[in-house]
Structure formats: structure tokens, C-alpha cells
Amino acid sequence: MELFDKADRLGIKWISNTEGHDTLLHIEDLSYCIVRAPLIWYSEQPASTIDIVTESNTLTLEAESEFQESSTGRYLHIKDITFFVQVNSRAEYAVIPKSGASDTLVWHLPIIYNCPFLPPCHLSLHVQSEPAAPLWETWLDQLPEITTDISLPAELHVLEGNTHRTYMDSFSMEKGLKNQPFYPKVREDSPHPYLITQRVLGRDAVMNLAQSADHSVIKLGDIVTCRTVITNTGTTTCMYVQYRTTLLSCARLVPGSFVINGIEVPMATDSMNVITVILRNMPVGDLLDVSFRMEIHEKAEVEKLYMSSVLDYHFQPVDDRLLIGNQPSNVVEFIWGEAEGEGEAGDEAETEETSG
Asked: Is 345 helix (H, G, I), strand (E, B) or coil?
């Protein structure tokens, strides 16, 4: 039974009442969103009804799936509790059967979450669907086709009986993901698992934007040259790259001044004073040098003004689907230097800034 199979910027947090695990859920990554949380519990006797308990909440649940393992005679239960985990994302967890001794119940809760700061990966979570279901074969058959000349770090979790085995490795993908020499050893250790979860990191487009201007103290009539150096410092091609920058509200684009790698490109701003341009696909290590001039044509309403650029782009994770990336540049600060009666001082500040 496939519970999760997706490529995205995903992480996994595992809590359990087995030895070596923590029952406290705490995700360290910032800006995360919990997307799947299947609770799996394993017992000597049927225990389809349980209470899941935290300090602030108790919820009685019925298993969505329950069957008796043919090899051990024990009972396996599964319930998706994503909604509960989303509102108890920092809590101590306990699972208590409504009947029978709680010390015979083993539970695992793998929490899959999305976070924009994580690298892209492929994450799969499969559980046994019936007593004699061959989980290894089913799981291997559904792995994506991945062939590349670089190694990809992987994290593998296997549950068999009361044993949870975790493997960390870096896979050579020259023969593809399904033909890893790593898997036969794991299958020997756990020939009859009831859960397999794997997270394989993908190749990432890591974009670097360095924004600058030839001077930062500005006054009416100034011409400022702005520059953005864009570099693909990742491990895969960045595709369908869109560059955006918003000019200062007191400035306008100088006609014929927009240049990419020394080549003039016809350009105009939109009604919001924004430049938008589609760039080429950028392979690993590629660099684009974007520059333009803006004229300060009216007095600024504030003393300090700020400007940066943004890239929107696509790249391929491990299952060949396109993911969307977004990368802002650093922020450049401008200071209005034409205070009343201090025009000369403003000029001096500009000169000092430029020479520095």
C-alpha cells in the first residue's frame, strides 16, 4: 500500500515508543508544513481502537487498515493522523489501546513535511497491504527511474516486527536507483518488512544573485548603473529563468541601457516600474551579468530607498518532474543626498561612496 510517493522539498521526522526513539515531536526546520503523518501500531492482540494523547489533546481513533501477519501472528494497524499532528507539532505523544495491555503495543509515527529551505528529494512510504503481500518487490517496482553520474545521499527506514532499522548512504546512480547494491544487504537484514520509507536527495539548482549599484547616495538628475550577477552554483540545470527587479519609485529606466553579458536587450518597465525578462537555461556554473541604468527624475519621498532582484526558475528533481525555485538577491540601500541647502554635501557623499 502506497501511503506517500512524491518529489519536493521534503523532510521526515520519526517518533516512536521503541528503544532509541523519542516520543517528543519537534521539527527544527523553519517555515515547514506537515503534509502526511501515518500512525502505524503493532500489537499481540487486535487493537483497532486507540487513544492518541498529547498534553493538550486526546483523540480516539479507529484504524483505517488492520490485518494479522502470517509470519508472527501479530496485528498491524494504520491510521492517517495528519490533521492531528498539524495542530500538535510540538508535543509529547502517547498511543494507548482502548483494551489490552499498553506495554504490548509498539507504535511508529513518521511525519513528512515540506520546507522551502530543504533540498529537493524523492520520498516514498509504503506499508504492507495484506498478510502475504511482498512489500520489497512492490516498493522496488514503483521507485522512479534515476540515472546520473553523481552520487545522491539517501535515508532508508525499514520496519520489521519490533525492529526499526535506519540506513544512511550515498548512492551511485550510474546504474539507476532500482539497482543499488545496497538493497540486497538490507533485504537480508529485514526479509519481511511491513513498512519501507526512503528519502533520496535530488540534484538542486542553487542560484546566487549579487546586486550592486555604482553609487548609493542619489539626487535629482543622477544616472545610477545597477548590476546583478547571476550564477548557478547548484548541481543541475536551471530552466525557464525569469529575472525581475523593481526600479526605485523616483527613477525610470534609461532607454537602451539594459544589457545581458554585454549584449543590449530592448526593455521597458511595466506600470509598476518593474523589469521582467526571460533568460536562457543556465547549466551548472553558468553566469549571467545583467546591468541597466536608471535616471532619478523626481525627488524621493523618503530618505532611504531599497532595491533588489528576484529569480523565478524551474529545475528537475529525481523523478524528472519540474519544481519551481525562487531566489531573491541581496538588498541595496540608497540614500537621498539632496537635503535643502546641502547640495554640495550630497555631491561629496556620492563621490566618497563611488570611490569606495
From this structure: helix
